Amino acid sequence: MGLVGDQGTLSMRRRTGVNSGSWLTNVSAVLSRLPSTFFRSRRPENDLSRQFFPEAENGDGKLKLENGSRIGVIGSGPAGSFFSHFLLDMTQRLGLDVGLDIYDPRDFAVIGPTGCNMCGGIISESLVQMLAAEGINLPTTVVQRGIDSYMLHTDVGSVRIDTPLHEKRIAAIHRGTGPRDIDAKDIKWFSFDRFLQGLAVDKGACLVRDRVDTINWQDGRPRIKTRRGLEQDYDLLAVAVGVNSPSLKLFQEMIPQYQAPQSTKTFICEYKLGPETLEKYLGDSMHVFLLNLPRLEFAAIIPKGEYATVCLLGEDIEKPLIKSFLESPLVRKCFPPDVPPEPPPCHCSPRINTYGAVQPFGDRVVFIGDSGVTRLFKDGIGAAYRTAKAAAETAVFAGVSREDFRAHYWPKCRDIDFDNKIGKAIFALTRQWQKRPHDLRGIVRMVATEQDDKKRAPHMSMVLWDLFTGSATYREILWRALHPGFLSRLVWHVIVGHISLRRGKLP
Description:
Layout: H1 23-33, H2 48-52, E1 70-74, H3 78-94, E2 99-103, E3 122-123, H4 125-133, E4 145-147, E5 149-154, E6 157-162, E7 170-172, H5 192-202, E8 206-208, E9 212-218, E10 221-226, E11 231-233, E12 236-239, H6 251-254, E13 262-265, E14 267-272, H7 275-281, E15 285-290, E16 296-304, E17 307-314, H8 319-326, H9 329-332, E18 347-348, E19 351-355, E20 361-362, E21 365-367, H10 380-397, H11 402-408, H12 410-435, H13 437-452, H14 459-469, H15 474-481, H16 484-503
Parallel strand pairs: 1-2, 1-12, 2-8, 5-15, 12-21
Antiparallel strand pairs: 3-7, 4-7, 5-6, 9-10, 10-11, 13-19, 14-17, 14-18, 15-16, 16-17, 20-21
């Protein structure tokens, strides 16, 4: 859909979440422009971490990666694979010889739950741009559909939102090879997580398909033991498991200060419809629902490959709420009449983060992705990219002590955590809109007016697009919503919505 082939030429004006003024980002930019041979002298004689960050010498000077250091990564989802890729890339540029092992019993080439990471499978436009800047271009076999518009469905009407500025596009993917009811001979796509895992392995990571059962300390270093009896000590251990993994419990005694993220239950399912039916009922649009259903913050139907993925996000999504949503007339219009309003064979109820972890780091240990801090409801893969890269940069250029991570990694986590607080306020306001038909009617009118008249500034369209896709931080969304042009037009359309509602007119 024009998404993959032109990634390198997409506008870079909106690299959401990247602070160009941070020392970590500046160093990465410098390193990416230098030839690899620039770093081939021995580290003690040409230590770039000391050239760029002289303050790093003020630490204890002991907990640093050196030639021969070993790094262990638990989990090979996006966070674990990104961390491994970036750390190995940076150490290779520095001429530093380290070993890195990734532990994960899952095989993302396997069909069904065994190879699935339980995710809606949307990559935001901002992440597509950032990955392209890193030289990571998503192949056409990974991107199953380019989403070029949203259909917003509410109790008072529906409206289409096209890509604002004609540059905001998102990618629909499968995290695994495919749903449990897919026929092996029909597989045309490549798992996104398997693709990222391959990037890490190509950089030199060793993939160990085994489950970590115990973790303890040995002479000041973390030691892991797997289910098959493998034991290994590491100079740094990166934890990249999700909140649905039992492995998080292993760290409560190891690092008493660490507290796992708080989470809530969601619902995801996959309907096999076929490409022609998908095109007829969904097209290249992601269908978003803001319905007045208790505890439902947000729902979406995402077309990808031969399947439609249904995602329900909110507060502890249970069967009665799932039933109410699937039986809604607005939802039924998105499916053929012969598709029953009940969950298909491939469905799950994973938990997602609502609050970040407390102190996701310690001496020689760092928690990244969902086990640390991630974005609220949206762009979890983007948050995995940001936290993984920040952790890798800290470990390579500053050190692997608790104070190193506190000084250089924690600020990135804290920014995401603070942004999530703003997101909670925005979703609380959205819930109030869903309960007030006249206000909701005004929002639908405002979007429809912007979409009909392309000369108008798309204030509401851009706010909703970024809210649904995760392409911008919640802070940016709030700032855009406080624009005088946005507020004045919103008030006008809400007033007109009140009048239309009283007269019984359509939006």
